[in-house]
Every structure is written in structure tokens, then in C-alpha cells.
Amino acid sequence: MVRLDLGDVVLRRMQDKDIDAVKALIKEGCEGTENRLILYLLTRSLALLMLAILSSVLRCVLNSFIMALVAPVFIFIIYLKLTIPRSVGILGSSRPYWDYMGSCYHADTKPDLPNPHTGRAKLEKTRRRKKPKEKVKDKTNEREQVDEDELKERATVAGEVWVADSDGEIMGCVARDGWSRDGVCRICRLVVQSWYRREGLGRLLVQGLESRTKQSGIRRVYAHVPFPSKVGEAFFRRLGYRLQGETAGTEGEDDDYEEPEKGCLGFTLTKVFVKDL
């Protein structure tokens, strides 16, 4: 496999043409994490107790011991598949659906995220190549057909999605949730295409978004890491994030608590990591 040259990567706002690629990327990232979450919930003590009780009740009704044992587990898995939000498993978000059109609002006017691996001259050349005048006009005409106030509201709900683009290929994405408090924001999605993992692309996306949010006055960033993602935990620790429970006593920590995502039976699905910029 050819090693990725981070200097060729442009970190830009997601545009309308990127929606399908980003959706496919997020779906790929969700699949394995969702299954790990289901396994984690199935092995909790309370869940095992409830499954055992239900199996005992079914045993009195069904003649098959195997069916009485398997049926509750199967029903529980189906229930979790339907109730666990698709957004949980990337970095967590209480919102199960995203308005991708809204997140593209004014994307053409947003400057790229900083990439320390790219020279200034090369970056300017890439920007000019990626934004021909004809396409800008076409997108402007499309946007005029949508009510301006409605699009602004949808953009607020969707947040901001940034993609890592190299020669037109979307290799990863990171998103800042539309939710915000004074001086605080949440990174709610981080996905890197499987071919480009362990190449520093995830670090580049997160650090680029941190740099942009810091310029806008944000001083604290939260990130949700799903149970039991050891890789995700190690990744954010390397970037200087701390587990929220480990920051007890830190100035301002008690006044600004981020609630972990919770799922079936009230079990916590995510660990909250925090970093002060």
C-alpha cells in the first residue's frame, strides 16, 4: 500500500457533491462499533439476569429449550439495532439523524482547516483548482431555490462537517456538533477510510478542527468515545485529551459537565474525553 502524503491533503468543508461519499464513510465506521456496543450491553449483569428470567418464563411455554434460550437474545439484539442511534459509535451524539444539506450551508465560503504539512503556495494552488467559477455559480443557483431562513436553521442543527480531500477522493471526515455552549464545543464524528488509517490522517483532522475552534473563542472540546473502544481511547489520550472523571478538581470542571450517552436500561454507552485548548 502506498503511504499517504499528508501534504497533498486539503481539509475543507463538506459540499453538496460530497454527501453520498460522507454517508458511505460514516456507515462503514458505524458497522463494527455498533456490534461492539451490542455485545457490551448483552454482557452486563442486569441484562444477563433479565435474559435468564425471560428464558425461564418461555421454557414454561415452549417445548424447545434451545428456542427458549435463543429467542430472548435474538429479540434483545433486534431491539438494540433499532434503538441505538446510528451516530453513537463514532464519537457520540444524542441526535440519531443528520441534515447533511444543512451542514453544507455556505461551505464554499469557508476557508480550509490548517494543514501544517502543506506549503502555503501549494495550498493556494489546490484551492483554486478545487473551486472553479462555473461550479460556484451552479451551487449558488441551487441554493437560491431553498428558503434562506430554513437553510440557516438546518445548518445550525447539522453542525459543521469537514472532509479530508486528496485529488477529489474523500479519505476521512470530522464534524463539530451544532450544539454548543459558551467557550465549549463537541467533536461528534471522526471517520477515516480503512485504506488510510494509521497514517496520521485522524490526528490531522482533529488538530485542524481544534485550531479553527480555538480561533472562534472555544476553549474546551469534548469527545465521546464508545464502549469498549480501546483504540479510540488511546487515540484521544495521545492528542492530550483526558477522561472526564480524571479531571475532577480541574478549574471549571464542576461547572461544565458533559453527560455521557446512555442507551438501553440506562447503561452508559460512551466515555467522555475533554481537552482545554
From TrEMBL:
<feature type="transmembrane region" description="Helical">
    <location>
        <begin position="64"/>
        <end position="82"/>
    </location>
</feature>
<dbReference type="InterPro" id="IPR016181">
    <property type="entry name" value="Acyl_CoA_acyltransferase"/>
</dbReference>
<feature type="domain" description="N-acetyltransferase">
    <location>
        <begin position="124"/>
        <end position="263"/>
    </location>
</feature>
<feature type="transmembrane region" description="Helical">
    <location>
        <begin position="37"/>
        <end position="58"/>
    </location>
</feature>
<keyword id="KW-1133">Transmembrane helix</keyword>
<keyword id="KW-0808">Transferase</keyword>
<keyword id="KW-0812">Transmembrane</keyword>
<comment type="similarity">
    <text>Belongs to the camello family.</text>
</comment>
<keyword id="KW-0012">Acyltransferase</keyword>
<dbReference type="InterPro" id="IPR000182">
    <property type="entry name" value="GNAT_dom"/>
</dbReference>
<feature type="region of interest" description="Disordered">
    <location>
        <begin position="111"/>
        <end position="150"/>
    </location>
</feature>
<comment type="function">
    <text>Probable acetyltransferase.</text>
</comment>
<dbReference type="Pfam" id="PF00583">
    <property type="entry name" value="Acetyltransf_1"/>
</dbReference>
<dbReference type="GO" id="GO:0016020">
    <property type="term" value="C:membrane"/>
</dbReference>
<feature type="compositionally biased region" description="Basic residues">
    <location>
        <begin position="125"/>
        <end position="134"/>
    </location>
</feature>
<dbReference type="GO" id="GO:0008080">
    <property type="term" value="F:N-acetyltransferase activity"/>
</dbReference>
<dbReference type="InterPro" id="IPR050769">
    <property type="entry name" value="NAT_camello-type"/>
</dbReference>
<keyword id="KW-0472">Membrane</keyword>
<protein>
    <recommendedName>
        <fullName>Probable N-acetyltransferase 14</fullName>
    </recommendedName>
</protein>
<feature type="compositionally biased region" description="Basic and acidic residues">
    <location>
        <begin position="135"/>
        <end position="144"/>
    </location>
</feature>
